[in-house]
Amino acid sequence: MAPSVSAKRRRVQDLTESDDENRPPSKEPSKSSLSGKLQKLLVKNFMNHAHLEVTFGPRVNFVTGRNGSGKSAVVTALLVGLGGRATITQRGTSIKSLIRKGEQSATVQIHLSNEGIHAFDAKLFGRTIVVERTIRMSGGGYKIMSSAGRIVATKFEYLQRILEHFDINIDNPTTILTQDMSREFLASADPKKLYAFFKQATRLAAIESDIRAIYTNLDVAKRKLDSKSGSIAASERELKTIEDRLKICETKQELEKKIQKLGHEKSWIEIRDLENAKAELEKRINTISHKATKKLKEAQNCEEEVERLEKAKQDAEISSNELHNQVKAAKEAVEKAENEQRNAKKDQMALQNLVRNKKHEVKTKWTEIGQLEAKVRERQAKCMSSVEQQRAQLEVQLAQVDTQIARLLQDRSDSDLTRQQFDKELEGLNARMADCNQQLYRNQREMAGWRADISKVEAQRGDRLRLFGRHVPEIVQAVQRETRFTVKPLGPIGAFVKCNDPRYDAVVETVIGRRMTSFLCDNAHDTLLLRRVID
Hints:
Blueprint: H1 5-22, E1 38-46, E2 49-55, H2 71-81, H3 86-89, E3 105-113, H4 122-125, E4 128-136, E5 139-145, E6 151-153, H5 156-165, H6 179-187, H7 191-201, H8 204-339, H9 345-462, H10 472-481, H11 505-512, H12 524-534
Antiparallel strand pairs: 1-2, 1-3, 3-4, 4-5, 5-6
Helix pairs in contact: 8-9, 8-11
């Protein structure tokens, strides 16, 4: 029967504590953890573990237990948690086969130290990088978190960057050696298999693959360079053609400017003529308006006369009404006289004469009234005909003026249309010239980039120390000038390494890695002083 999870956790903790107690005191500082070291492993529903948490010591850690208690599961969890495939664990054919029986998912969480000068983005992650991989029956995923628990990334490519930074190769047998591989290595005596194991352990196989890829990329780059060389000549010919076209465009633009200037002058001359014609027309219109005002004044006088005659007619009508009343009174007197005829024959004749006189006066008044009405009608007709005639003449003159103005506006619109056509053609030529200038600018930038790359390669070819970094020659000179070193540091290391066979230069550079730019110091004092010089 396998031990319980709590018993296994206590056993691992006891081993770690006993190892710390029996270890002699270290002369190193208390901050002994380096970047990329394992700090903690936490698994859930993984293989035969429902829940397991392992905290690793700062140095060597031993995991002991009975067969089947889950010791190999710890190694397998490290492989799988850092992105390994199921085949390299030799514990199954697929990742989902590592899920504990009866469960739907498993979780592996690994804590890596992120302290020291080689820390990976310490501002973002802090002192610990937490890698969590979730395995499900239908897939899975990654969570890369900071020491505060904030999720920074979820892509496997980001995890590969971290492993490359810490130089952790999970598929390298010298990093993690499984039981089956160790038995095969110890039992095998075949030199080919041993050499293959050696190449895998020293990463020579991966380096050879990288070299082949580099040579392939180099051939592709050479072909591209040859193609670009041909395109440079074509671009120069095209540039010359564009320059010729540009000169033609500049000449054409000068001509267009002259045409535009002449068009402006023509437009201003036409506008001046139009303004003169407009002033003359305004003068004539003012004259006509003055005459029309005069005629209107005369018409007003006629109307006043008509009003006066109307008033006289009304007065005559009033007088006629009075005479009518008098005639009526006279008739009444006649009737009265007839009644008194017998008594006053003498008065009868006088009254008759009076009646006849009154009738004559009434007739005379009616005649005068008819003459006055005829005069009023004649005077009104005369005034109205004169006003209508003047108004008709003014309307004819105004129509002529409107016709002239419309013709002048039509001429001006035709000149504006011609000017718009010139402007449209000029915009097209400007757009074509801008395209030519843009293409010329791109070609010049591309040629400048190529020249800069060529100059950089030639400069690095002459200065061997600058191949290890831009500031390496200055650092070496500063080290030589510094007099406080106990022993002058040696570096960079790559400057003192030289292969007898140039074919292995790339292999040695890959194996040594970033140590090619490092310096060798004799003691701690010189190391601190060198860091100050570099800073």
